[in-house]
C-alpha cells in the first residue's frame, strides 16, 4: 500500500460521502427551484450593475484589498488521516509523509481555484469602477502566495499550540500579515515580498510534513468531513445542537448566582437565556463580529445606505437573538411553561441585547452623518 493509492481511496471516499449528504437533502424539486432562483437573481443583478458600480465607486480600493485579505483566512489545510491509521502509519513513515504531501497539494490546488474565481470577480468590479495599474494575473499571483502563507502558518499553529495560546498566536499572525502586506504594496516591493512568501511557504510545508501531528490531523479531518452535516443540522429548526465546551466550570456565573431577585417564571427563563448566551463564547463572539462588520460597512457606504443598513441590522439582530432563545426553550423540560410566558420572556430578554447593539451601530451612523454634512 503506497501513499498515492491510499490518498486516492480517501479522496474518493470523501467525495462519495459528501455527495450522499447532498442527495439526501436536495431532490429534483429543490434543485429546480434553486436554478430558477439563481437565474432570477442573476438577471436582477445584471440589470442593476450600473447602479451597483456607481455605489461601489465611492469606496476606496484599499477596502477591496482588505476584503480580499479577509477571504484569505477562510479554509484549512486538511490531511486525510483517520484514527485507524495509527498503528500502520506509525511504522510506515514514508506513507505518512506521502499522504501529507498529497493532501497539502490537493488543498493548495483547491484554494488556488477559489482564489482565481474571487480575484477575477474583484478585478471585474475594480475595472468597472476605476482605473487600476495592476493586472489580474499579478493580483492573483500575490494573493495566492499570501493565502498559501496564511493557510500553512495556521496549520502549524494548530499542530504546535493548543488552548488559549492558539487564538492569541493566530491574532498575532493576522496583524503581522496585514502589516507586511501593507508595506509591500505601499513600497511596490513585490519581488522581495514574493521571495519572502515563497520561503515562508517552503519552510511551513517542510515543518508540516515532518511534524508528529497524527492525532491533530485525524481530529481536523473528522471535523472537516462532518462540517456540511453540522451546517445542515444547524440550519434545521427541529434539531438542537448544544455548544460543546471542554471547560469543566463556566467562566461566567460560576456559582450560578441569581440574576433576578424575584423568582418568577419569566425571570427563570430570562436568567436561563442570559447564562446560556454568555457562557457559550460563540454567541458573544458572533454578536461582536456582526456589530463590528456592520460598523465598518457603515463607514464606507453612502448616506442613504447607512440608514438602510441600520434598519436591516435591527431586524436581523433581533431575529438572530430570537433564534438563540428558541434553542433554549425547545428543551423538553421547559415545555412545562405556558407559551404566553415563553413569548413574554422572549421579548423582554432579547431586548437586553439588541437594544445596546442597535444603539452602538446607531451612534456610528449619527457620527458618520455629521461628518458627511
From TrEMBL:
Source organism, top-level taxon: Bacteria
Keyword Transmembrane: yes
GO cellular component: membrane
Keyword Ribosomal protein: no
Keywords: Membrane, Transmembrane, Transmembrane helix
Transmembrane region(s): 30-49, 61-80, 101-126, 132-152, 164-185, 191-215, 283-301, 349-371
Protein known as: Uncharacterized protein
Species in which this protein is naturally found: Sutcliffiella cohnii
Amino acid at each position: 500500500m503506497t501513499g498515492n493509492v491510499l490518498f486516492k481511496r480517501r479522496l474518493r471516499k470523501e467525495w462519495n460521502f459528501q455527495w450522499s449528504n447532498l442527495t439526501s437533502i436536495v431532490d429534483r424539486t429543490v434543485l429546480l427551484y434553486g436554478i430558477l432562483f439563481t437565474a432570477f437573481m442573476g438577471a436582477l443583478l445584471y440589470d442593476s450593475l450600473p447602479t451597483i458600480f456607481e455605489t461601489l465607486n465611492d469606496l476606496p480600493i484599499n477596502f477591496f484589498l482588505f476584503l480580499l485579505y479577509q477571504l484569505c483566512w477562510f479554509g484549512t489545510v486538511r490531511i486525510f488521516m483517520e484514527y485507524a491509521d495509527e498503528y500502520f502509519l506509525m511504522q510506515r513513515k514514508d506513507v505518512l509523509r506521502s499522504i501529507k504531501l498529497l493532501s497539502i497539494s490537493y488543498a493548495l490546488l483547491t484554494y488556488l481555484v477559489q482564489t482565481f474565481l474571487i480575484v477575477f470577480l474583484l478585478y471585474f468590479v475594480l475595472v468597472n469602477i476605476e482605473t487600476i495599474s495592476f493586472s489580474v494575473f499579478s493580483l492573483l499571483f500575490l494573493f495566492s502566495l499570501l493565502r498559501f502563507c496564511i493557510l500553512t502558518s495556521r496549520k502549524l499553529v494548530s499542530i504546535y499550540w493548543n488552548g488559549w495560546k492558539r487564538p492569541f498566536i493566530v491574532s498575532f499572525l493576522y496583524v503581522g500579515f496585514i502589516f507586511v502586506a501593507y508595506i509591500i504594496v505601499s513600497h511596490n516591493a513585490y519581488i522581495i515580498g514574493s521571495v519572502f512568501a515563497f520561503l515562508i511557504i517552503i519552510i511551513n510545508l517542510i515543518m508540516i510534513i515532518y511534524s508528529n501531528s497524527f492525532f491533530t490531523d485525524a481530529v481536523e479531518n473528522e471535523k472537516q468531513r462532518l462540517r456540511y452535516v453540522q451546517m445542515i443540522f444547524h440550519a434545521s429548526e427541529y434539531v438542537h445542537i448544544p455548544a460543546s465546551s471542554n471547560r469543566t466550570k463556566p467562566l461566567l456565573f460560576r456559582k450560578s448566582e441569581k440574576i433576578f431577585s424575584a423568582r418568577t417564571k419569566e425571570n427563570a427563563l430570562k436568567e436561563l437565556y442570559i447564562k446560556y448566551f454568555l457562557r457559550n463564547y460563540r454567541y458573544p463572539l458572533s454578536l461582536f463580529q456582526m456589530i463590528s462588520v456592520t460598523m465598518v460597512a457603515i463607514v464606507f457606504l453612502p448616506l442613504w445606505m447607512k440608514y438602510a443598513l441600520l434598519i436591516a441590522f435591527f431586524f436581523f439582530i433581533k431575529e438572530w437573538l430570537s433564534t438563540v432563545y428558541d434553542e433554549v426553550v425547545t428543551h423538553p423540560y421547559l415545555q412545562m411553561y405556558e407559551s404566553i410566558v415563553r413569548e413574554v420572556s422572549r421579548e423582554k430578554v432579547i431586548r437586553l441585547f439588541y437594544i445596546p447593539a442597535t444603539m452602538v451601530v446607531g451612534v456610528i451612523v449619527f457620527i458618520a452623518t455629521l461628518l458627511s454634512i
